[in-house]
Amino acid sequence: MRLRIHPDRPAPRKLGPAIESLRRGNVIVYPTDTGYAFGCAMSSGKGISALRKLKGIHEKHHKPLTMLVNDLSQIGRYGHMGNQHFRVIRRLLPGPYTVILPATQDIPRSMRNRNHEVGLRMPDDKVCTMLVDLLEEPLLTGSVTPGESEPDLEDPEDMERLYGNAISVIVDAGPLWPEPSTVLRLFDDEIEVLREGQGPLP
């Protein structure tokens, strides 16, 4: 199913089928500030397993899974951070960043990587914000990235053709060229840049 929406003025009622599908443990595709992404409910073991398969990230992988939240208090709930890191995060978010923090006990075990870390995103994007609000829990997320031999995907029609059997709903905001987030790993008093993307380095 493809749901066509306006990226700047999304109507909550149009996102209803996507929310219901997420609550049933399915994976959807939706637009973000960095391109299209796969998403599932954080509370769904079924959804997490399906998203891991789509992204090729097994449970012992060094790369952590990432979740969308809507406010800084949720980042503090799901990731451990000191005052120095909180000041950095408060300055950068919302925006095109992924911050990797040590996971708290509120993170499902099936989400953690082998280092017990979690990625957190708080995009400046109305569709993302509305999805998390309507779902009433964080949204596990992973960018739609095809194989190395395939071109980047920007059109929902191509995504539907490629992933139609693995996803239930595509939230279609029109073609979006993927522009990755800047990924920062925050640990102790250090900031490690894992990927330089849209967001300027702090």
Written description of the protein model:
It is a single chain. This protein is of the alpha/beta class. The chain has a single domain, classed as DHBP synthase (Alpha-Beta Complex), CATH 3.90.870. 27% of the residues lie in helices and 25% in strands. The protein contains six helices and ten strands; from the N terminus they run E-H-E-E-H-E-H-H-E-E-H-E-H-E-E-E. The protein has helices at residues 16-23, 45-55, 72-78, 83-92, 126-135, 156-163, and strands at residues 2-4, 28-32, 35-41, 66-68, 97-102, 117-121, 139-143, 169-172, 182-187, 190-195. Strands 1-8-2-3-7-4-6-5-9-10 form a ten-stranded mixed sheet, sandwiched between helices. The longest helix is centred in the N-terminal third of the chain and has 11 residues, at 45-55. It is globular.
List the helices and strands and how they pair.
Blueprint lengths: L1 E3 L11 H8 L4 E5 L2 E7 L3 H11 L10 E3 L3 H7 L4 H10 L4 E6 L14 E5 L4 H10 L3 E5 L12 H8 L5 E4 L9 E6 L2 E6 L7
Parallel strand pairs: 1-8, 2-8, 4-6, 5-9
Antiparallel strand pairs: 2-3, 3-7, 4-7, 5-6, 9-10
Give a brief rundown of this model.
With 202 residues, the protein is of the alpha/beta class. It contains six helices and ten strands.
Number of helices: 6
What is the C-alpha radius of gyration, as a whole number of Å? 16 Å
Please identify the top-level CATH class. Alpha Beta
Q: In terms of structural class, how would the helical and strand content be classed?
A: alpha/beta
Order of helices and strands: EHEEHEHHEEHEHEEE
Mean pLDDT: 91
Distance between the termini: 40 Å
Shape: globular
- Sheet with the most strands, sense and barrel status: 10 strands, mixed
Cross-sheet strand order for the largest sheet: 1-8-2-3-7-4-6-5-9-10
- By DSSP, the count of extended strands is 10
Beta-strand proportion:
15-25%
